[in-house]
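agent: user wants the structure for Peptidase M48 domain-containing protein from Streptosporangium saharense. delegating to structure tool.
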Amino acid sequence: MTTTIPPAAAERIPDELAGLADLAAALRVHTTRPGLLITLDPDLDHNARASVNLCDGTDRIDISPDLLTSGPQPLYGVLAHEIAHHALNHGDGIIRRYRARVVQAALLAGLALNLPSLALLGLVGLMFGVHLADARRSRLEEYDADAYAVRLLDAAGAPGRRIVAAALADLPADPIGYRLGGWMFGGHPTARARRRTLATGRPARRLRWALLWQHTTTPAAARYGLAATHTRETSQ
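agent: tool returned. relaying tokens verbatim.
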């Protein structure tokens, strides 16, 4: 695992966040993913992003520097959430990644070829439907990642539900338009919906199927705690 932190940002990191790399290493014990690169991205507004390097397959997590001043629990919850995205293979599907672009290209080609209005209207409807389907799947994946992050943290000997709840409580408020219905077109549920789902303790709607079909492990709660878990990892 590699952590990349600019010198200017490193000077502002509180002492209690020094265990960030240790936590990431402890969480990755319970995943089957390869190496992990953590970087700071000042363009992210109090947010984080999980992505995969298409050249070498390395997992990457970009974190907003603002999260470094949120306190340890919100930061750890965000880190566990992004690692959960990687563990559940979210966003890895080739068809899902490019189907919206294929439909857009077909629409542009139809305009260039001057296709009948009915055909163009059908392509517009298809593009809209693909966007809604992708947005809904992304929202469900956020619930999955929250639930799996709790399991990963519990397996590392940390209070998973409390840490993830702290991360969700630290989320910025959604715009009123997004809360009133704009979320249907977005890739994230509202912060209120995520907090409510976590508080109910219900299993995420798609997580059971993800664990079954993707052969993702279900980590068991640790018997000893984060420090002992990480010690066992480094001694192997």
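agent: one observation worth passing along. The chain has one domain: 15-206.
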